Prior knowledge:
The chain is mainly alpha-helical. The chain has a domain at about 50-80 and about 120-150 and about 160-250. The protein is about 65% helix and about 5% strand. It has helices spanning about 30-35, 50-90, 95-120, 130-135, 145-160, 165-185, 190-210, 210-225, 230-250, 265-285, and strands at about 5-10, 15-20. A hairpin with a 2-residue loop joins strand 1 and strand 2. The radius of gyration is 32 Å and the shape is globular.
Amino acid sequence: xxxxxxxxxxxxxxxxxxxxxxxxxxxxxxxxxxxxxxxxxxxxxxxxxxxxxxxxxxxxxxxxxxxxxxxxxxxxxxxxxxxxxxxxxxxxxxxxxxxxxxxxxxxxxxxxxxxxxxxxxxxxxxxxxxxxxxxxxxxxxxxxxxxxxxxxxxxxxxxxxxxxxxxxxxxxxxxxxxxxxxxxxxxxxxxxxxxxxxxxxxxxxxxxxxxxxxxxxxxxxxxxxxxxxxxxxxxxxxxxxxxxxxxxxxxxxxxxxxxxxxxxxxxxxxxxxxxxxxxxxxxxx
Length: 285
């Protein structure tokens, strides 16, 4: 093959420069070095099929969280009746009755604390801060055994008369159900994170009989931004959670209240004025 360079003299130096007939050397481009992407890989939750699968799993998570919330509510009502019956019995026993009530409630509280320390330290407190920390990837998800510890410990502690609410256990139990369902169906961590948030919202919705509040709680308090995957999963889980809770409990009221009867119009006017003033002050704050 004939050489593609020519020799020229420039001064006393012999230089070789490429000729006009030289074929330029082809360098591989960056895109040529990368493997070609195909559509043969697994579907992600960003695709319509993956999002539908995620929503179906969220329905199952919501049903589980709703059943757990309904069972916890029934157990707490039964524990409250038992505590009330014990206190009523102790009224006629003077100091001995008071001592029995005190010892019983203290023992129940100590058993609840021992369960948490021995089997699941993540169940300490209300549980909502732990769920938020897991969503921010600051803490690993708790083992599924937390559900039993939170359920039994919540019944013992709240049933003993401690000033605690049922929303914390319901939220953490629902979040644990979401993580367990994600692992059971082999979902990735982003999908497990969505299911965790959806389960937490379903637990709150079942605790207060408020399906929309469950989804709003997830977006405003847990995730703190709008994500369409989280919104769809939270709404689906809250819907099934409320449906199952109402099927087990009936059309229950989250915050039972007594409606005062107004005798005449003169007594209704001050009540109306006070409510308007309080509402206006709340709106200004």
